[in-house]
Amino acid sequence: MIQPWKQKNDHIAYDCGFFQVHVQQSASPVTDKEHPFYVLHTWDWVNVIALTDDGKIPMVYQYRHGSKEFSLEIPGGAVDKKDGDALEAAQRELLEETGYEAREWHSLGKLKPNPAILNNTCHIYLALGAKKVSDLDLDEAEELEVRLHELPEVKQMMRKGGIQHALVIAAFELFDLFQESNPRLFKS
Amino acid sequence: MIQPWKQKNDHIAYDCGFFQVHVQQSASPVTDKEHPFYVLHTWDWVNVIALTDDGKIPMVYQYRHGSKEFSLEIPGGAVDKKDGDALEAAQRELLEETGYEAREWHSLGKLKPNPAILNNTCHIYLALGAKKVSDLDLDEAEELEVRLHELPEVKQMMRKGGIQHALVIAAFELFDLFQESNPRLFKS
Q: How close does chain B come to A119, measured CA to CA in Å?
């Protein structure tokens, strides 16, 4: 039976404010030999699939500085100190990034963005009965376009490479599974 | 129409050998004001959904140092200098981590693990006709168990939170889309 590694020490080697790089020396449960592991500590994240009553999904199109490309995504962001919990963060991010509110919220599950090198969790929500109620309220370094798409268009973009963000594609897999388990919510 | 940001400079603030933290000052195309962005540069990754002729998927169960939990995943890893391309890396990782080879390989697409803070791409492959041909060949800091699961079990674990790795769940969404587009490959 496979065992967890034993952490021997931990120090922060770099901190940019958004994440800290931890260097952790851990010992193998099999050989007892130590190896260094490099782990980013950061806030939890949230992502929201919102659905209007006429089947539109508000999505955000923005320039991403990691990939140096534009990326079509569902709204989301970091769980902030001012958020009571992940659901509140999801409601805030949906409103700030798209101007939408929703009638009914469901958890679609939790993702580990990368359990090998990140310590955080991304909480995925479904927001039904979404409706535009206000203008966007963006951070200074955020510039984005809201685009409405229907689910078959989203699937086609995932198939063709027009949507590549792993957290977004994983969120739609969780949505598929939720729909299968809750068919009555999606009767049209 | 939304525009890309203009990068003004770039320096490496931290390098652990597995990734480099780049600090990039970029100017908004709207306000021309500069902001710092923190981007991790690392190798491309590969992940493989392998399928035996009797419908089993070899998966790897291992301790992950980011989440400090065990994680059930599909085999994969980094594209190495010794790999000619991503497909070769996928074939190598499948063999090393599970001891399986496969008859027929298909690309399921490319994921951006996190286009906000990572510069890399994860290449997803489907390996049909997978067959155990050898023992595992693991790195010194790798300890894992190979577990065989059928697709309905995998879906159930994703639904219940037993599988949470975002890249793994995204890979199964790409697999669903591929199956819909290529039904003849999956006739039983």
A: 4
| Domain formed by A45-182, architecture | Alpha-Beta Complex (3.90)
In chain A, which residues fall in CATH 3.90.79.10? Answer: 45-182
Nearest-CA residue of chain B relative to A26? Answer: B65
Strand partners, B25: B9, B36
Which candidate in B21, B64, B176 is best for mutational testing of the A interface (most A CBs within 10 A)? B64
CB A87 within 8 A of CB A54: no
Contacting residues for A157 by C-beta, under 8 A, at least 6 apart: A72, A149, A163
Measure CB to CB from residue A38 to each of B18, B68, B169 and give the nearest one: B18
Which of B71, B117, B174, B179 is the mutation pick for testing A, counting most A CBs within 10 A? B117
Average pLDDT, chain B: 96
DSSP state at residue A112: B
Count contacts between A and B (CB, < 8 Å). Answer: 201
Contact list, B28 vs chain A (CB under 8 Å):
141, 143
pLDDT tens string B161-180: 999 999 999 999 999 999 99
A4, A121, A165 member nearest B112 (Cβ): A165
ipTM of the complex: 0.97
The mean pLDDT values, 10 residues at a time, for chain B of 188 residues are 94 97 96 96 98 98 97 97 95 97 98 98 98 91 93 98 98 98 86
Residue among A173, A176, A179, A182 with most chain B CBs within 10 A, to mutate: A173
Shortest Cα–Cα distance, A36 to chain B (Å) = 9
Q: Nearest CA to B77 among A127, A95, A128, A116?
A: A116
CATH 3.90.79.10 region(s) of chain B? 45-107+122-182
Question: Residues A84-105: what's their mean pLDDT?
Answer: 97
Q: Specify the pairing of strand B144-150 against strand B56-64.
A: antiparallel
For domain B45-107+122-182, give the CATH number: 3.90.79.10
Nearest to A169 by CA among A182, A187, A156: A156
